[in-house]
Amino acid sequence: MKKQITIADVLKIFLQHIKLIIIVTLLGALLAFLYVTYLVTPMYSTSALILVQNGNSFESDINKANNSSLSGEKVNTSDITSSQMLANTCSTLFTVDPDMKSIISGATINISVVEDSYFLRISSTSSDPHTAANIANLVANTAPQVFKKYFGDAGKVDTVEEANVPSSPSSPNKPKYVLIGLLVGLVLSLVISFLLEIIDTTIKPGDDLYKMYDIPVFAEIVDFETEGGGKKK
Fold this sequence. Notes:
By secondary structure, this protein is α+β, with helices and mostly antiparallel strands. It is built from nine helices and four strands. The chain has helices at residues 7-16, 18-38, 61-71, 77-96, 98-103, 129-151, 174-199, 207-213, 224-227; strands at residues 44-54, 108-113, 119-126, 155-161. Mean pLDDT is 81; it is low at 57-75.
């Protein structure tokens, strides 16, 4: 008859191997910490912000808002929409343009439109914080020239915010790695504990005999050699 394992038996198995579970779990966290500290290259991220304007419809966001409030003039919705469409076009154009590609070296660049606006966020990521900031600013400063090459005087591009040198890495996330190491170590330790119990073919006193053969145990013969520390001479 096969031995039936209940939830109580599983919990008992884990309690019997609690030291192994604790050690393996902590070891998993330690290995994850050492890995992320010494083997993973820290990356630094920063970003610059530029404004894309369609034609001469805007002098600037601030000046236009001031003029509108003084004269009662409203900003034309079509002008805003066209600038947003132009910003979306430029987000792709600035990425594939040969002049832009030639200055992007040593960093990963992402150019995206700020939601519901005509601002472009130029994000730069590199293993060197100064390189990340320099390339983001270089892309922002080159953007007007690239824009003029394709669109002439149909609009303009202005830098609104320059990229700063990041003081701390944006990745990797050490706490996240350590937590993953803890979880992996815990799962591994539970699996090992269960396997050790499965491969253990020795018959334990009392309950094991009852579960295997469904026969109650009325008495046990004591192993004096084990219990007493050896045979007496």
